[in-house]
Amino acid sequence: MRGETGAKKYIILFAILFLPTLLYLLFVYGKGEQNFAHLPFVTYIDEMGEEQNRKAPEFGFVNQDSVPFTSKDLDGKIYVVDFFFTSCPSICPIMTANMLKLQKRFSSFEDFEIVSFTVDPKRDTPARLREYADQRMIDTDKWNFLTGEQDSLYAVAYDYLSSAMEDSLAAGGFLHTEYFVLVDKEGNLRSRDDEQGNIIGVYDGTEAQHIRDLIDDIKVLIAEYNLELKKNNQDR
For a Cys-Cys bond, which of 8, 145, 173, 187 suits 64, CB 3.0-4.6 Å? Predict the structure, then answer.
């Protein structure tokens, strides 16, 4: 009787710890396409009235090590971007802490990166960005902090569905959105739909639930590419 009770305890413990993960993997990696989760594209309507996938912008700046970094360096990568500044006294510390969660969660996935653009390039020199990263023990091999010409940075923010501007009345002297933006390997902006079926486009980098949603959506995006690779190998 004791043996049976012990076995039941192990079965229950296994179900609690591993069943949710097994169900997720079955859902994402299931054989039939009807079982496959797909993360929607962020789209827009062009001048001809045609729906188009929204693409990440082209850019060229320098990173925390004064090394040139361009949009081409992100080809073939799944990545998340945000806009911040090192002396920000309000939302930026929360955003950076949440980005760290993303980096740690996907540290074993070689094709995942993070890019943080400063909105205060006059003060956020490469040296200052390096100091900011080092103080937080950030792995900058896969997380680049970029600075450059202010107008170009702000234009890039707009193309990433974000905004940035100087504002003497704002905390720290700048206003910027708290958004995290997810981009796939082909440079398409991706996100989930809301409960009404509308694309959300961006994730709130200060909200715990949005961070959980983003983690789940990155998993789905990774699974998309893994399934595509699996299909390509089977077709050979």
Answer: 145
